[in-house]
Automatic annotation (TrEMBL):
Protein name, UniProt field: Glutathione S-transferase
Record family assignment: Belongs to the GST superfamily.
Record GO terms (molecular function): transferase activity
PROSITE patterns on file: GST_CTER (PS50405), GST_NTER (PS50404)
Keyword terms: Transferase
Lineage top rank: taxon: Bacteria
Kinase among keywords: no
Domain GST C-terminal intervals: 86-218
SUPFAM superfamilies tied to this protein: GST C-terminal domain-like, Thioredoxin-like
Ranges of residues in domain GST N-terminal: 1-83
C-alpha cells in the first residue's frame, strides 16, 4: 500500500494518474495548502521542502519519496511499467519528463501566479510567462506531429506534461493552432485511469465556472499563499 500526500494541483495529479495507470493500491491523504498543512513537522519529515506531492511506500519499509518527477520515476521502476528499461528508451522518457519539470511546470506555474493570484497586475510578467508557456506548447505540438506520444509508447513523460498542459486555460494560455497537441490531449483525457486520477482529489478549476463560489474560494486561498510567501521573503 502507498500513502499519497497530495492536493488538487497538476503536480499532485501527475502522481495520482500514475498510481491509477499502474493499478497500485494507495491511500489518499489530502493536504489543505491554504492552511499550510504542507509545512507541518509531520509532513516536513517526509518532504523537507514542504511541497506536495509525496508518497510513502509501505511495501518498501515505509520508504518516502518527494518531488513529483522523482515519484514518477520511482513508481515506473518499481513496477517495470510506463518507462522502458533500455538506456535509450529510458533516456527519451526522462528527457521529456525533465522538459516538463524544468519548463512547462515552472512557466505555467508562474503564469498562474501573475495572471490569477498576484495582488497587482504586472502585465510584462504576465506576458512573459504566458508567452513562454505557449512557446513550450508549440515545442510539444511540433514533436507530436510525428509521434503519437512523447517518447515512444505512453509513459510517465506523457502523464507529467499532460497534467500541466490540460490546465492551460487557468494560466490564460490557449492551444488554438496546435492541432497535434490537441489530439494528444484528447487521447490521454479518454483514458479511464486518467479520468480517475484527476479526481484524486478533484480540482475546483475543472468546473470551468470561473464565477462560481468554489472557484473564487480556491483563487482566494492561492492568493493568500502568494501573499504569505511575499511577506516571508
Amino acid at each position: 500500500m502507498i500513502d499519497l500526500y497530495t492536493a488538487a494541483t497538476p503536480n499532485g495529479h501527475k502522481v495520482s494518474i500514475a498510481l491509477e495507470e499502474l493499478a497500485l493500491p494507495y491511500t489518499l491523504k489530502v493536504l489543505e495548502l491554504s492552511k499550510n498543512e504542507q509545512k507541518q513537522p509531520e509532513f516536513l519529515a517526509l518532504n523537507p521542502n514542504g511541497r506536495i506531492p509525496a508518497i510513502v511506500d509501505h511495501e518498501a519499509e515505509d520508504f518516502a519519496v518527494f518531488e513529483s518527477g522523482a515519484i514518477l520515476i520511482y513508481l515506473a521502476e518499481k513496477t517495470g511499467q510506463l518507462m522502458p528499461t533500455d538506456a535509450k528508451g529510458r533516456s527519451r522518457v526522462l528527457q521529456w519528463l525533465m522538459f516538463q519539470m524544468g519548463g512547462i511546470g515552472p512557466m505555467m506555474g508562474q503564469a498562474n501566479v501573475f495572471y490569477r493570484y498576484f495582488p497587482e497586475k504586472i502585465q510584462p510578467a504576465i506576458d512573459r510567462y504566458q508567452g513562454e508557456s505557449k512557446r513550450l506548447m508549440r515545442v510539444l505540438d511540433g514533436h507530436l506531429q510525428h509521434h503519437e506520444y512523447l517518447a515512444g509508447d505512453y509513459s510517465i513523460a506523457d502523464i507529467a506534461n499532460w497534467a500541466w498542459v490540460r490546465t492551460h486555460k487557468w494560466s490564460g494560455v490557449e492551444v488554438d493552432g496546435l492541432p497535434h497537441l490537441q489530439r494528444w490531449m484528447g487521447a490521454i483525457r479518454q483514458r479511464p485511469a486518467v479520468q480517475r486520477g484527476i479526481l484524486a482529489p478533484p480540482s475546483e478549476r475543472d468546473l470551468n465556472q470561473e464565477d462560481s463560489e468554489a472557484v473564487r474560494q480556491f483563487t482566494a486561498g492561492a492568493r493568500t499563499m502568494v501573499e504569505m510567501g511575499q511577506s516571508k521573503a
